[in-house]
Model the fold of this input.
Amino acid sequence: MSVHDPARSPLLPPPGPRRTLALAQLGNSVGDGAYYVTSALYFTHVVGLAPARVGLGLTVAWAVGSVVGVPLGRLADRRGPRGTAVLLALATGVAVATFLVVRGFLPFVAAACLYASAQSGLAAARQALLAGLVAEEERTGALAHLQSALNAGLAAGAGLGGLALSVGTGPAYRGVFAVDALSFVLCALLLSRLPAVAPVPAPRNGGLRVLRDRPYVVVTLLNAVLLLRLPLLSLGLPLWITERTEAPAWLVSALFVLNTVAVALFQVRAARSVTGLATAARALRGSGLIMLLACGVLALSAGRSPWVAVAVLTGGSVLLVVAEMLQSAGSWQLGFELAPAGRIGEYQGFFGTGTTVARALGPVLLTSLLAGLGVAGWLLLGGLFLTASYALGPVARWAADGARRDRAATPRAVRPA
Done:
């Protein structure tokens, strides 16, 4: 077996830039995992904010972050992605550390805006850095390793956060936030060890070109629909389990662990068949079909005995994680391949707003469908996933045709008269 075979390790790729990127992802995701499971209680019980104010502040912060992430991605293209990523990782660590001292709503919102903006920009800069260091045909595999490392770190961090929750004291929560802040310092140190990627000079037609690239905008919006799986896992499914089924509440945590561990172990394998636009579209169609099936299975858990509900929900969650891995691999390929050279950071910054849109609009949509319509809501949600996944193939071809026309026109535009 070749040393470059990604199946050798589900978490870490071969030594080199790809491994360093994965280690950086693993390091800061441990802190993030601890943050995710403790932040709500920290902000309400320790900082003393009302839950509604916490939700409002975070919504504002991620809205700001989604907007700021695009110009920060463009900055990575123009100034160099390695230095930009290092600075944004440090800025994220500073934002987390700021949470340790905020005592009031407005300071909380300011710190949250810094956190969300730095996180969004860091994601775009890290993608631009990967594009500069990894051959085009290896990027989806490299992103699969990053996703595996991310989920492994989140699972470990969630365990650390669980210890803080069991202690339930202010110092325990602050310790978790300190670990998260330090994890971004570690991320910055690891990223600084990577080779530098040369910045790309600003093109003549300056400004944010991605906002004028209609096919790419549609791809991003359709992908945002598929990313509704994120609030489905974190909000929709837990609410369904606790309010509409007889399954025990601990199943929520067990299914989270199932999801993170499965992605950590199998994402690399799931991404190996995605090598271009055609295979990406096929993976996305498969993801949509499996999501429809998963929604149908999960709907069957209502009105069942506790252990039958556990079995049905577990089966549906297995289908969800398979669909997630196919969707991730397909969307990574589209996001990179449809972005023009020299604007990877800008385009990835915009592509990443799909996650923010899904997390912002998902809770309202999911509670309306699942809590309001029950089984019919599950079927409508599955149909939405299926429609978006099948639409992405033709839209991606439209975007690719436009990108080819742009490349063909560029030499003629600059040729001397």
About this structure: Residues 12-202 form a domain with the Growth Hormone; Chain: A; fold (CATH 1.20.1250.20). The chain is about 80% helix and 0% strand.
